[in-house]
Design brief:
heterodimer, A: mainly alpha, 2 domains, about 0% strand, B: about 140 residues, globular
């Protein structure tokens, strides 16, 4: 329980920090780079390394490669849909999370497992 | 195009928008840990690249741009969504940096301290993301 609470606090702080940096920057396309910041990884890797060891982190980082490729697909699909202007950002970016999930799991099952 | 810092953007963001980002980011980070515990580091690792910031940021960009246009008398919906699309295009370029971050951590974590690994990986993320954006702008 304590572990989860620490993750919530540290994760919330790191994600907020990166999104704040993104808010301040112009142009919008450059600020968008911070939407793909490794915030979750930065918040968890130190905790995981202390608790589970470096070998465990290496396995997680290897899987993260496939998650990052899935992120690319997710962001490209979101861009294509948003540019048409038919649906709201909230609807597009949250529904497209299924694309990220399917792509990351699909890549992992096909290439790693 | 020149990169600039716009401090006035901070005043446009409401406290509940900061809170929602904090809670969403915290929940995602906790979820990554829970998934790793339940299904192992293979599945848990995928969540290290979960789009934790992007949905909240894109929604905020749309809302701010729409309001800006409405203050000038326009409708603003289309403008807001186009601005969010630009933010999304930036995020897709940033994902190259995310990929490099993962590779650096994977290769270095066993040989150097965690803090040094994260420092090098974060620098690699930033350099890759900025280079990808510069190349995109030149094309």
């Amino acid at each position: 329980m304590t572990d989860i609470l620490i993750r919530v606090l540290v994760g919330g702080f790191v994600v907020s920090l990166f999104s704040l940096i993104g808010d301040l920057l112009k142009p919008k396309s450059f600020a968008g780079l911070f939407g793909a910041a490794p915030s979750v990884a930065l918040a968890t890797i130190t905790l995981t390394a202390i608790k589970e060891g470096h070998a465990y982190v290496a396995i997680e980082a290897y899987s993260m490669i496939w998650g990052a490729i899935a992120f690319f697909f997710y962001a490209c699909v979101s861009t294509r849909i948003l540019i048409r202007g038919k649906w709201s950002s909230l609807l597009v970016t949250t529904s497209a999370l299924f694309i990220w999930g399917a792509a990351s799991l699909g890549l992992w099952l096909a290439l790693v497992r | 195009m020149k990169i600039s810092i716009n401090i006035s953007e901070l005043s446009r963001t409401h406290w509940y928008e900061y809170l929602s980002r904090f809670l969403f980011g915290g929940a995602t980070t906790a979820l990554a840990g829970i998934m790793a515990k339940r299904f192992g580091p293979g599945i848990g690792g995928l969540f290290l690249a979960f789009p934790a910031i992007f949905p909240a940021t894109a929604t905020l960009v749309e809302s701010h741009e729409r309001k800006k246009k409405q203050r000038r008398g326009g409708h603003g919906t289309l403008r807001g969504r186009k601005a969010a699309a630009l933010d999304a295009a930036g995020a897709s370029l940033g994902s190259f940096g995310l990929l490099v971050f993962a590779i650096v951590v994977w290769k270095l974590i066993d040989s150097i301290p965690v803090w040094a690994t994260l420092l090098i990986a974060t620098m690699a993320w930033l350099i890759t993301a900025v280079c990808a954006w510069r190349i995109w702008k030149l094309c």
